[in-house]
Amino acid sequence: MVLPFFSLKEKHSLVDVDIHSHLIPAIDDGAKSMDRSIELILSLKEMGYKKLITTPHVSDMFLNTSQDILKGYKNLKKELDHREIEIEIEVAAEYYADDNFEKLLKKKDLLTFGEDQYLLFELSYFTSPQDLESLVYDIKLAGYTPVLAHPERYVYLHNDIKKYRNIKDMGVLFQINLISINNYYSIEVTKVVKELIVNGMVDFIGSDTHHRRHINFLRRSFSQSLYRKIFKYNKILNNIL
Ligand SMILES: [Fe+2]
Question: 20 CA to middle of ligand 1, Å?
């Protein structure tokens, strides 16, 4: 990938497409209102994003149906048109891997993105999944391409890069959160994300924007030396979308 010249003080994204955010108002723990949602979108646009694939949570805490999400998306799009804000916006979801997810998977009632039906899913942060291999098998069998959200945040994977390799070998793509490189979560998470980056294990990058604090950290992530290393060591797929 040929990178345009940017100084280290640059506050712009090197990809046009963001694939992970919580921008639909009052549907999860992301934007709380339409005004806040618009504010976050304008900030992302200012950072150089041209297309946002927003991904509300579907979990036991946020039992959103596909219909709920599509309805919220339609309202948001209408508001963007109304305010004449030019940015492409699409919708998918971030699925927590639980029983409800398995039911939705059986019904093929899942919101995905891209031609390869990329399916963004997340795991528990603290408890290792019981049988990830068969879940991934089922996801692929149903015709989806599994994309694991923020692999750097799962503490039970932290001490062993082989665990990450094993998941990648199952055919799972990795989406890291950009704010992880900027110490947003913890020093440990930053250490792990660096390892994933320099070992060429990253497929997608995402902002995972929920609120203003994320925007502030994201803006500062672009000037981190680790940001450029993402593109040096990995084939990042964001811009094929
Ligand atoms: Fe998320």
Answer: 6
